[in-house]
Amino acid sequence: MGYRDADGRLRWRGPFETITAARAERGDARTRARAGERESANPRLRFGEAAERWLTEQVAQLRPATRAIYRNAVRNHLAPRWGRRRMDAIDVTDAARLVRDLRADGLSEWTIAGILKAAGRVFKFARRHCRWRGENPVELLEKGERPKVGTTRERRIFKGDELAQTLAASTEPWSTLFRLAGVVGGRESELLGLWWEDLELRDLDAATIRFAFQVDRDGERVPLKTEESKARLPLPRSTALMLLEHRARTPAPTTPRSFVFGTRNGGPLGQRNVLRALYRAQERARTPDGLPTFPELFEADERGHLVVGAGGEFVPRNVGRRELRLPDFHSLRHGAAMDCDDAEEARDLLRHRNSNVTRAIYRAHFDDRRRELLRARMETRMETSTRGSREETTSKSRGEVPDLQRIRETRQ
Questions:
Q1: Distance CA 175, CA 155 (A)
Q2: Is residue 33 classed as helix, strand or coil in its secondary structure?
Q3: Domain extent listing, the chain
Q4: By CB distance 3.0 to 4.6 Å, which of 164, 226, 347, 393 could disulfide with 358?
Q5: pLDDT tens readout for residues 60-89
Q6: pLDDT for residue 366
């Protein structure tokens, strides 16, 4: 069956089982042509081919961490499902099925959203650079079919005395790093990227910290990716004193362009070493009764009692950290955010793009905070109205004329 497309080019389709089917297809093609709908100049383009070109030509220009995220999304999740399929054959039903399958595999909603973002980027790249004219099925997903990032389970933070006991079990310079993270809510890479010139400590009552750089996975100091993440924040006086004490005792260089948390050779501390130090501190942390702060790190018998070794020490469990829902370094950032009064204050501290991002992450927490504030205001109104009614009743029983002005002022 032959027809002319919107550009006037003669195109052929078929074969068809019946002449009726051919005529129906030709009618649909002519309708699309009259509407100006252009056809793909590369209809046989496969998703895997477009995805590899996207990784090579565009993603290669991005930062190492971003490259690793996109590469993982394409090669571990998208290519096994869509790699050999023609892009014209991938529709919105396939995109919705992808979300369901990834969710069934146990991936978090944020991870699924990242994979879906990579898929959408591949389709956009194919339209711009691969002469493909099809629809992007990711853009056609409805809200209910997309990842529900707002329903991500609540972040694990340090509760009660867990943080204090962990800090008591840690050593320098890790203690200072952990304390600073819990105050300013900085990311691990941002804190490790600090130079001494980023700290203004001359006036302890007006001390500040400036975030503009981070350390990447290769140990290189690079600018922060977004302008919103760059900011200067105030430092409490006690935190400024802690940093001055750290500078006085650290064996690392302390020139203005030296790392605040550095090695003797002048390089930044490694991110893996930071996590190891936090894990060791959690294993050593003890309650005032001498019990482990995090008992899930140690073996227990069938009655739930901790197992004690021959030397009187608790026996560590042979279990992966990912299997245990313990606070990690990022929990220090979450804890700082949850100390804020509302999402706007948390957005300023965490330096998110806007407060909607903050609300999506901490929605449950701030909803609870608002409910508590509302309950307190309702309680105040109830007490005020009850007190006023009690005073009116007392005045009537004594035959006194009530002081209406005083009652109104009390109610207000």
A1: 22
A2: helix
A3: 2-34, 47-151, 162-332, 355-407
A4: 347
A5: 888 888 889 999 999 999 999 999 999 989
A6: 67
Q: Which two tokens stand for residue 216?
A: 């990447």
Residue closest to 166 by CA, chosen among 294, 291, 271? 294
Residue 208: helix, strand or coil by DSSP? strand
Q: Are strands 208-211 and 221-223 parallel, antiparallel or unpaired?
A: unpaired
- ω before 43 within 30° of 0 (cis)? no
The pLDDT of residue 346 is above 90: no
Superfamily of domain 47-151: Tyrosine recombinase, N-terminal domain (1.10.150.130)
Check pLDDT > 90 for residue 388: no
Residue 204 makes CB contacts below 8 A (sequence gap 6+) with: 237, 240, 241
Rounded CA-CA distance 343/367 in Å is: 10
Average pLDDT over residues 127-140: 89
pLDDT at 341: 79
Strand, helix or coil at 140? helix
Q: Checking DSSP bridges between strand 10-12 and strand 213-215, what pairing results, if any?
A: unpaired
Reading the block at residue 244, the tokens are: 């001055």
The domains spanning 47-151 and 162-332 adopt the same CATH topology: no
pLDDT digits (tens, 9 = 90+) for 368-383: 666 777 777 788 877 8
Enumerate the β-bridge partners of residue 200. 208
Phi then psi for residue 97, to 5 deg, are: -65, -35
Whether the predicted pLDDT of 7 surpasses 90: no
Q: Measure CA of the first residue to CA of the last residue in the chain; give whole Å.
A: 82
Sign of CA dihedral 374, 330, 182, 357: negative
Say which CATH class 162-332 falls into. Answer: mainly alpha
Predicted pLDDT at 6: 61
Confidence of residue 351 (pLDDT cuts 50, 70, 90): confident
Provide the Cα torsion 40, 115, 56, 62; round to 10°: 130
The SS3 of residue 298 is strand
Is the Cβ–Cβ distance between 283 and 297 less than 8 Å?
Answer: yes
pLDDT at position 104 over 70 = yes
